[in-house]
Specification:
- The protein has one domain.
- The longest helix has 28 residues.
- Helix 8 packs across helix 10, helix 9 runs antiparallel to helix 10 and helix 10 runs antiparallel to helix 11.
- The protein starts with a helix and ends with a helix.
- By secondary structure, the chain is mainly alpha-helical.
């Protein structure tokens, strides 16, 4: 992988991790388009490509931690205080407990899907179809939400579990993590901004865990020294910077506009890539 490709993938990851358009799908598309136009086999992924994907996700994790640093600190402080006093009534303490429980639920759902998700990296046609399905989820969540007279601006246990289940299902490339979690919040009568903020906070333990555990399981540590670390670090920084900007303006967008524009995007890109890679073997 050269620097230009890694930078481009960093931009794609930074945008698509938080926008409801599936970052994993876009990394699959970007990688496979690059291989097609460079006459490389698409049914092949090096260990360095896997590691680059992990580092780009780590970049967007850093973006979340920086943007929500105040909320993260308040949640951690309230959670520690709640454990000490055995009083869990504080709202931030409850959020911390919801995120902990949601992480467990996500792992239970996502772990059995992991092997399927890894194989889909080599099946951009199926990933395109799954992205198309994500478009339907986004569209109908908005249709349902718009029919509600009132929407909650605080998370509760039921909503957090439903969103965690959605996050687990979104382990499959093409099923947008942010898209499915936000949409599940809308279906459960949570307003868009609240659902999005919780979705981003809920992603922290999962991305952190994957970034720390996955390399030790799937990658030969001896190979790490041979990787182009300068390019990888640059790509990670690009991913984090773009991700931070994306979070900031996406939340402002959600305060005024619906998810339907992203649904249309998923329809178009999902259909196009499915057709394209169907004919390009």
């Amino acid at each position: 992988m050269d620097l230009l490709q890694i930078i481009f993938m960093g931009i794609v990851q930074g945008l698509s991790e938080f926008l409801p358009i599936s970052s994993s799908a876009h990394l699959v598309f970007t990688s496979n388009f690059y291989k097609v136009f460079n006459n490389m086999p698409i049914h092949q992924q090096s260990s360095q490509e896997v590691f680059v994907d992990i580092m780009l996700h780590l970049g967007t994790l850093i973006a979340v931690l920086i943007y929500f640093r105040k909320e993260v600190w308040e949640i951690l402080s309230a959670l520690i205080e709640g454990i000490k006093s055995k009083n869990y009534s504080d709202h931030n303490c409850k959020l911390g407990l919801y995120i902990m429980l949601g992480t467990v639920v996500t792992v239970v759902i996502a772990y059995p899907l992991n092997e399927i998700a890894e194989k889909l990296v080599y099946s951009p046609v199926i990933v395109g179809i799954l992205l198309f399905i994500t478009g339907f989820v986004l569209y109908f969540s908005e249709v349902y939400s718009n029919r509600l007279e009132t929407k909650a601006n605080k998370m509760d246990l039921k909503s957090s579990i439903i969103m965690a289940i959605a996050q687990g299902i979104a382990a499959l490339p093409g099923f947008s993590r942010s898209g499915w979690t936000i949409a599940s919040g809308l279906f459960n009568k949570i307003d868009r901004v609240t659902a999005a903020r919780y979705s981003f906070l809920l992603s922290i333990p999962i991305i952190l865990g994957a970034s720390m555990v996955y390399p030790f399981i799937k990658i030969d540590m001896a190979e790490l020294v041979s990787y182009n670390w300068i390019d990888i670090i640059i790509g990670t920084l690009v991913s984090g910077f773009v991700g931070y900007i994306c979070i900031k303006y996406f939340l402002k967008f959600l305060a005024k506009y619906s998810l339907k524009v992203f649904a249309y995007y998923c329809f178009i890109v999902g259909l196009f890539t499915a057709i394209f890679f169907y004919f390009v073997k």
